[in-house]
Design brief:
With about 240 residues, the chain is α/β, with parallel strands linked by helices. The chain is built from 11 helices and 10 strands. The strands form 2 sheets. The protein has a 6-stranded mixed beta sheet with strand order 6-7-8-3-9-10, sandwiched between helices. The chain has a 4-stranded antiparallel beta sheet with strand order 2-1-4-5, covered by helices on one side.
């Protein structure tokens, strides 16, 4: 579904990623954990086209449908079915909740992706995130931080994507909202949505994920099934002692 091979990327002369290789299989949740500055968000930005890889391959799909996307612009990658819910939410503050969600389906409305039933998917997104249902006519900028995070996630789902990148969905949220975010991620997983999750709460991420990668200084330090990483003494000591919730 998503295959990353020897990925190098950074910002100008600052190199952040030094040869990352990882896979996100179809209908699975893969999490990328690591300390601040390890390169997690840079990885997500390189995958979605927000920054360009300087070396390596990013491949979406499999077999005859496989496409290399590392040189593509973000809008072309989105049309192929990759949705990115970025760190920091980035909702359209002066537009309503409903209009933000409809914008998430824009490639479908322009037939750049199969259209399907956008109205039905809009209602599904609202039902999936009950707090948004109550505020569907509010301007996005008037929502709380937690509500804006849910809107960013719901907007990504409106693409009817083949894969979703979730970058720090619990950042800055109260514990009760963190629990709700992970409940929604678990539900999407049950529905077969393919996800790559970057998350500060490593324990919670490994609880919902099928597989995990640990990123240190722009390199993959270790990887394996999520349960294996949860029980790995070095991973526990570095990431699970203070980041569980």
């Amino acid at each position: 579904m998503l295959s990353i091979k020897n990925l190098h990327a950074g910002y100008g002369k600052v190199k952040v990623l030094h040869g990352i290789t990882m896979d996100v299989p179809k209908a699975k949740v893969v999490t990328l954990i690591g300390s601040n500055g390890a390169g997690k968000t840079t990885t997500m930005r390189a995958i979605s086209g927000m920054i360009k890889a300087t070396e390596g391959e990013i491949i979406m799909g499999a077999g005859s449908d496989a496409k290399r996307i590392e040189a593509m612009d973000s809008h072309r990658i989105a049309r192929l079915g990759l949705a990115h819910s970025p760190e920091g939410r980035r909702v359209f503050a002066t537009m309503t909740v409903t209009d933000n969600l409809i914008l998430g389906a824009f490639p479908r409305l322009t037939w750049a992706r199969p259209k399907g039933d956008v109205s039905a998917d809009l209602e599904r997104a609202i039902e999936l995130f009950p707090r948004l249902k109550e505020r569907r006519h509010q301007l996005a900028g008037t929502l709380s931080g937690g509500e804006q995070q849910m809107l960013a996630m719901a907007r990504a789902i409106m693409l009817n994507p083949d894969i979703v990148l979730l970058d720090e969905p619990s950042m800055g949220l109260a514990p009760i909202l963190v629990d709700e975010v992970f409940r929604i991620i678990a539900r999407l997983k049950d529905e077969g949505v393919t996800m790559l999750l970057v998350e500060q709460f490593a324990a919670a991420a490994l609880n919902v994920a099928d597989y995990g990668y640990v990123l240190e200084n722009g390199r993959i330090a270790t990887h394996g099934p999520a349960e294996q990483l949860r029980n790995d003494p070095s991973v526990k000591a570095a990431y699970l002692g203070t980041t569980s919730h």
